[in-house]
Specification:
It is a single chain. By secondary structure, the protein is mostly helical. The chain has two domains: about 35 residues, no CATH class; about 45 residues, no CATH class. About 50% of the residues lie in helices and about 0% in strands. The longest helix is centred in the middle third of the chain and has 16 residues. The relative contact order is 0.09.
Amino acid sequence: MFRKKTVVKVQRRAREMNLSWSLDESLTDIELGKLIFPKESKQAPKKMPDFNFRSELLFKVIADRSERGSTIVTTNLAFSEWTDLFENTSMVAAL
């Protein structure tokens, strides 16, 4: 069962791709999907986030919090592996 929003999106995308109904009846759902949503994206690749900035921001939040009380950080990494995630080793040691 399709939701109305999904159908509207498919219709809008079909217009963008210059597809109109009625389509060839021998066209399969997979072939139609490839026509409407081709694999090649015309969008620019996504920019990676600034992990250095984010790790410094996390450190600041934890440092500010430590002035008021204890903070617990959970992770699936061993503490020795934190430097793989956070580039600043002195910051990891301070945590």
